[in-house]
Amino acid sequence: MRSLKCLLWLLLPFTAMAQQYKPTWESLDSRPVPAWFENAKFGIFIHWGVYSVPAWAPKGVYSEWYQYWLQSKQVHGNNNPKPTAVYDHHAKVYGDDFSYYKFADLFKAEDFDPDAWAKLFEKSGAKYIVLTSKHHDGFALWPSKEATKAFGTPWNAVDAGAKRDLLGDLTAAVRKTPVKMGFYYSLYEWYNPLYKNKQYKAYVNDHMIPQLKDLVNRYEPDIIWPDGEWEQSDTLWQSREFLTWLYNESPVKDKIAVNDRWGKGIRKKHGGYYTTEYEVGAKFARPWEECRGMGFSFGYNRNEDVEDYNSAQSLIYLLLDIVSSGGNLLLDIGPDAQGKIPPIMQERLLQIGKWLDVNGEAIYNTRAWKTHVQWSEGRQDWKPANKGMVSGEVMLKQTVNPDPGYARKELFFTVNGDNVYAIAPVLPEGRLLIKGVQPSAGTKVRLLGYDKDLSFKKVTGGIEVSVPRLSVKETPCEHAFTFKITKAS
């Protein structure tokens, strides 16, 4: 008995360490965001579900909100959409009596090849994935018994059209690569009978929390990305209690990253990393992430044309602006109902990956330097006229195509140890002044992808680099060019 007491006494500190977080924001916020997330810098968001069948919304509108636009006869977004636009479209194409729930039988995902998706993600240079396990319509991409029970109709991907664990199959494929796997999860559901009838306690206890714990226990994700939190408090959602379980007891307690969407008024105040959505120019002291689509929708929108999609150039500049400000870019793709990723989205991912093949050293594992960007002469307060979702194309106005009188961002900076990276949207001709860099006796300057040291000299306020004239074959990449300054401060 005495030896047993001694053993329990020895184990006590380890037990205490395992139960270190309490259900208070002060305690939960003290947990560091996992280093892998801060090192990753680039992730891929995937919005895929029943809404991928109609795949329709006015331009500038989220197509994944199809059910809400349909049933509420309201539409919000850029370009002042007609409130009944989705309802009118649905009535014309499917008929007034065609329920949104019938789309589940048409969501067959017959062309879905999870290994092909995973290979594309790896080639893109993304370090993590966030898939919509369940959006606001409540349809689950895994065999969630709660989803089908709640709606009284087959309402998950195994019970309905696809007859397949889409989430599980993609998770298995991604785990064959170095890319990490995460899940988006909507806390609320527009038309869940319990939620709609304000039976909130039953909704949370019997539906939401069991689903979340099932996701974590069954698939052991690297990220839980909640959303749809804005209608209710973190107390009603039991967010603090769930996070306490997640951090202390769950099988992913040591690796899991979470965002800040845990209740009304919580964003950018509590949780894990902070999030922005279709914004440009954000910066926070805490790790953060900007999420956006390549166009103006997260779900696939058949209305969008090529001019609605961000160019690879603007997406790379957006990545630079975010990473140099200490954040991550979570760039969304919207596969179609058959499980194909639209070619334009594949192309953009491969173009970003090609650039990262040369310049990834200046992105991954870096942190914000003492200076975010180096501006040219002129005004620095240019802002887009649109007050809604901001296109990534605005980065062209801030870099290569400024309006008269406005400055441009000549260089973006990142740092890793004593290596400073200065990334130029335009390849300089002749000489490049890099302000704020203090070289040492061992400092060298190189252009990533070009196998020769560059000459430089210390000048007032920084260094001046001699940039060689490069032939087309010698130019290492397109769109942006990285100067690595070693042993600098």
Structure, described:
The structure is a single chain. This protein is α/β, with parallel strands linked by helices. It folds into 2 domains: 345 residues, Alpha-Beta Barrel (TIM Barrel); 119 residues, Golgi alpha-mannosidase II (Immunoglobulin-like, Sandwich). The chain has 16 helices and 17 strands. Strand 10 and strand 11 form a beta hairpin. Helix 4 packs across helix 5, helix 7 crosses helix 9 and helix 7 crosses helix 15. The longest helix is centred in the middle third of the chain and has 20 residues. The radius of gyration is 24 Å and the shape is globular. Alpha-L-fucosidase is responsible for hydrolyzing the alpha-1,6-linked fucose joined to the reducing-end N-acetylglucosamine of the carbohydrate moieties of glycoproteins. This is alpha-L-fucosidase. Keywords: Glycosidase, Hydrolase, Signal. Its EC number is 3.2.1.51.
Topology overview:
Layout: H1 2-18, H2 25-28, H3 35-40, E1 42-46, H4 66-72, H5 85-93, H6 103-106, H7 114-124, E2 128-134, H8 145-151, H9 166-174, E3 180-186, H10 193-196, H11 200-219, E4 223-227, H12 234-237, H13 239-248, E5 257-258, E6 274-277, E7 288-293, H14 312-324, E8 327-333, H15 343-359, E9 367-375, H16 394-397, E10 409-416, E11 419-424, E12 430-435, E13 445-447, E14 453-454, E15 456-459, E16 462-467, E17 481-485
Parallel strand pairs: 1-2, 1-8, 2-3, 3-4, 4-5, 6-7, 7-8
Antiparallel strand pairs: 9-10, 10-11, 11-17, 12-16, 13-14, 13-17, 15-16
Helix pairs in contact: 4-5, 7-9, 7-15
Function: Alpha-L-fucosidase is responsible for hydrolyzing the alpha-1,6-linked fucose joined to the reducing-end N-acetylglucosamine of the carbohydrate moieties of glycoproteins.
EC number: 3.2.1.51
Keywords: Glycosidase, Hydrolase, Signal
